[in-house]
Amino acid sequence: MNVPYRYNETGTALLVPADRVYDARLQLASQGLPRGGSVGFELMDNARFGASQFAEQINYQRGLEGELARSIEAMHTVQHARVHLAMPRQSLFVRERQAPTASVLLNVYPGRSLSDAQVSAISWLAAASVPELTAENVSIVDQNGRLLARSNAS
């Protein structure tokens, strides 16, 4: 591609001249880059006929985690998000049903921080997206290991 570049001071970003940014992005996109990121419900697009119910449930859960992460990353303060859902299998033979829980790991842009309202919004977003999940059962941690919201699940 022959685009001059350098890393920022912290080594976390690749910098290119402003007049070459869009050209570089187009060239990368034509090669299917960048790869990675969250996987969402597109997992369901490749569902195999005859897949087990367990495999379908795992793909659904992974898709839901990815979609939630993408939604959280849409916040201007959040650089990257990772969501883990614990969705217990429910059974007719168990008296006490276990509630689902969620854990969210946030990587916040340098020099920025989340307000209490934003942390609460993330909890409510997760709760509204997962059946039977309550905002009180969502834990949120930032990249420095600071607990921003604690789950009340036992």
TrEMBL record:
Keywords of the record: Membrane
Report any Pfam family annotated for this entry. YscJ_FliF
Question: GO cellular component annotations, sorted alphabetically?
Answer: membrane
Checking Gene3D superfamilies in the record gives: 3.30.300.30
Q: In Gene Ontology terms, what is one molecular function of this protein?
A: cytoskeletal motor activity
Q: What is its main location?
A: membrane
Q: Where in the cell is it found?
A: Membrane
Membrane as a keyword of this entry, yes or no, is yes
Q: Does the keyword Cell membrane apply?
A: no
Question: Which part of the chain is the Flagellar M-ring N-terminal domain?
Answer: 1-149
InterPro entries, A to Z: AMP-bd_C_sf, FlgMring_FliF, FliF_N_dom, YscJ/FliF
Q: Give the highest taxon in the source lineage.
A: Eukaryota
Q: Which PANTHER family match?
A: FLAGELLAR M-RING PROTEIN (PTHR30046)
The protein's name in its UniProt record: Flagellar M-ring N-terminal domain-containing protein
